[in-house]
Description:
heterodimer; A: Translation Initiation Factor IF3; B: alpha+beta; 2 helices
Amino acid sequence: MDSLISLIIFLVLLTLGYFIGRRREKRHYQSILEREKEYADMIILHEKKPPPGTSIPYVLVTGSVVVSSDYFKTFIAGLRNLVGGRVSAYESLLDRARREAILRMKEQARALRCNTVANVRIVTTSLSQGGKNQLGTVEVLAYGTAMVFIPEANKPAGPVRLGAQSKPVQRRV
Amino acid sequence: MIVTSIETIPGYRIVKHLGLVQGSTVRSKHAGKDILAGLKNIVGGELTAYTELLEESRNEALDRMKTQASSIGANAVLNVRLATSAVTAGAAELLAYGTAVVLERVDG
Lengths: 173, 108
């Protein structure tokens, strides 16, 4: 009887995780895509040195997000662990978190009226320790230096090169 | 005080290097929020309480770094790096570190 009850609880959690988790993920992806379009004109660079033609303020901006996987994903990933290979359940979770963190960093930069963020770094940290083979809770942090880039300041090479880099990367959802 | 993740700032010259400065803080979560987060583990998604907590702690770490920098006479911290690590279950350390320098405006 006890095992039956625990089986029912397990199945209920699994279906809850599957349906609610999927709906939330879909909604989140929709909002990410919308906001990515809105912030598509912002230049994000990995270069350590600011490109020529930039001006103050050079301010540190950060964006972070803490996400957790749902019950269904944890279960599927646990199964996947037996045979190895791509864990697509977690791939989408981390992809989502990373894009959200970058968007938040861009929001902060725009609030400072900046249009460029240089030397962007992305750090992922697992916050749940102890759970065996479990991803659980993850923090993704994106940070960089916000600045104002003026295209007129140097016509020859800068803007063309930067424009090519600023194209948003469209990924399969 | 200027705090950036880049190594040099156009229009400014580094007059003096003062070495590494750092600031860190260890925070743990409120038990009530922890239980709520446990429930969130079933349906997944963002844990807003944790995001805010870490954001707050990170600002605290940055503030401590700035305090240390100004105490040794710096007016800027360059090449700042941020790191987060889970110390134990329920507590995280937020660390910010960078190079303290004295900057001077270059005219023209």
